[in-house]
Amino acid sequence: MFFYQISLLGSPLESLTYHHSGSLPIGSKVALTLSNRSAEGVVISEVEKPLFSTQPIVEIFDLFYSDTQIQSAQFMAEYYGCSLGEALNLFVPYPIHHEPVEVAHHERPPVNITLSESQLKALDF
User: Fold this and answer.
1) What is the C-alpha to C-alpha distance for residues 105 and 102, in angstroms, rounded to an integer?
2) Distance from first CA to last CA of the chain, Å, rounded?
3) Which ranges constitute the DSSP H helices of the chain?
4) pLDDT in tens, 36-90
């Protein structure tokens, strides 16, 4: 049995501990129950077995939050005084099986600009 800290998406609550029979990567989007209602959350960390009983993770979505998204959300939560779940709710998760997108790179044509004397002084500043 594996135990995880789960941040509830859009909730002001702090992270809660849930369990699952398999290993889950950090950043996985999951479904769970909280007080007999459905909720969604993000796996923040794996933890040791707690001294209290935990609820199971109901479903694992094919979506995840990247390390960069989680770190940005942690900064936002600390800076703006909100929960991690509220900050993470602002991000869009990535699909687990996504194809890399090739970005087209275009070279910029050379630009011949004549700068005035005051513009040259500002450029050299």
Assistant:
1) 9
2) 62
3) 67-80, 84-88, 117-124
4) 999 999 999 999 999 999 999 999 999 999 999 999 999 999 999 999 999 999 9
Please say whether the structural domain 2-95 has been given the CATH code 3.40.50.300. Answer: no
Place of tokens 């990567």: 25
Kindly tell me if the per-residue pLDDT of 91 is higher than 80.
yes
| β-pairing verdict for 2-8 and 37-47 | antiparallel
Residue found by looking up tokens 């999951």 in the block: 30
Tally of helices (H runs) and strands (E runs) in the chain:
3, 6
pLDDT at residue 98 above 70? no
Strand-strand pairing, 16-20 and 55-64: parallel
